[in-house]
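A reminder from the course coordinator: this example appears on the midterm review sheet, so study it carefully.

Given structure:
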């Protein structure tokens, strides 16, 4: 590994027992954060872990004007033996750099990024919650800090990592969500930024989510931006369609879809339990027909925050399409148990996806 050292500052520690029993998602943060800065002359430098604290920026910093900014999201899981697992965090570091490349931002060497995450989580291990299905959410971010209103590749950046003890994204746990098939708005277009985790994609999605909520649904199902015909994603999750005990299909990565770590893991686990797995262009009209004929037996979203979110009801052109009687199905349940079993160390990690952080006792 290239030389990389992280200064660790003294921090006033709070007691994680002060957290409410209902953690919610992304509302509480730990005592420390990681940060390092970049400029063209020195590259990444001044890496340090210090107090979680405000960031002071010039009002003309490029992120405020051009939105040059990326982030990612992964989790640390409390094992029954008290140690802590990271799950495929190397993939998040890789995706962070793919997002950086798309936004003309500098990469963070993946092994340094992973080392920073591991060190921060090790220092904050007290904050990894232990209630069922809770975790410590890890949020790495990079912002363009250079003072310049021109639309061009910036030369100065801040990279930081914060941690949040969380419950699953959907408070009700493993129960079905309802989705509104958006015909008014699109999330991302091929050739755009949909495959990068950059805030503009999410800012632009809020109006559609608000519309979905106003119409009585929880999330948005996104169709492709060009033909408004093929399925892209659901909310901030990838989507899967189950055909009985036979097959699992998910939209192929088109450039408009975020390549999810959960998606890649579920595709592997589905193949492991004998399903025929395919990544293809999925015509929404065909999905509607296949739900009506009973060929499609389950639909679910998949992502780090929600893990697996079974879809019970789809609102499309003024009517409701109900999947599996509105209830979570057996394949979603089984894949959820398999995935979380590996993440929390309850099942053997046969694919080598976890990294254990030793907890000082
Ligand atoms: C738009 C979008 N799709 C899919 C996902 C799922 O990706 P992952 O499984 O890596 O969390 C996310 C979350 O990161 C997302 O923001």
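Designed residues:
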């Amino acid at each position: 590994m290239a030389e990389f050292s992280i200064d660790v500052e003294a921090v006033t520690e709070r007691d994680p027992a002060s957290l409410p029993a209902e953690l919610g998602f992304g509302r509480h943060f730990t005592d420390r954060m990681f940060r390092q800065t970049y400029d063209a002359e020195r590259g990444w430098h001044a890496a340090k872990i210090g107090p979680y604290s405000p960031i002071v920026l010039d009002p003309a910093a490029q992120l405020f004007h051009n939105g040059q900014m990326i982030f990612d999201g992964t989790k640390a899981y409390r094992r029954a033996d008290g140690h802590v697992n990271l799950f495929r965090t190397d993939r998040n570091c890789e995706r962070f750099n793919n997002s950086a490349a798309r936004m003309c931002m500098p990469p963070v060497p993946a092994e340094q990024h992973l080392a920073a995450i591991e060190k921060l989580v090790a220092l904050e291990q007290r904050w990894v919650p232990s209630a069922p299905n809770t975790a410590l959410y890890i949020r790495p971010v990079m912002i363009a800090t250079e003072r310049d209103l021109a639309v061009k590749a910036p030369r100065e950046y801040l990279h930081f990592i914060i941690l949040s003890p969380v419950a699953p994204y959907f408070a009700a746990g493993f129960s079905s969500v309802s989705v509104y098939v958006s015909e008014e708005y699109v999330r991302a277009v091929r050739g755009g930024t949909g495959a990068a985790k950059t805030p503009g994609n999410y800012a632009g999605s809020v109006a559609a989510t608000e519309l979905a909520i106003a119409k009585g649904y929880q999330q948005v199902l996104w169709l492709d931006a060009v033909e408004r015909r093929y399925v892209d994603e659901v909310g901030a999750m990838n989507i899967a369609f189950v055909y009985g005990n036979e097959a699992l299909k998910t939209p192929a990565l088109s450039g408009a879809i975020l390549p999810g770590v959960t998606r890649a893991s579920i595709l592997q686990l589905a193949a492991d339990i004998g399903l025929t797995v395919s990544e293809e262009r999925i015509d929404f009209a065909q999905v509607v027909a296949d739900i009506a004929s009973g060929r499609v037996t389950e639909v679910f979203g998949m992502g780090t925050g929600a893990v697996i979110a079974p879809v019970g009801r789809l609102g499309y052109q003024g009517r409701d399409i109900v999947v599996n009687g509105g209830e979570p199905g057996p394949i979603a349940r089984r894949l959820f148990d398999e995935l979380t079993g590996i993440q929390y160390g309850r099942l053997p990690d046969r694919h080598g996806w976890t990294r254990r952080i030793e907890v000082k006792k």
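Residues 177-343 form a domain with the D-amino Acid Aminotransferase; Chain A, domain 2 fold (CATH 3.20.10.10). The chain has two domains: 7-166, 177-343.
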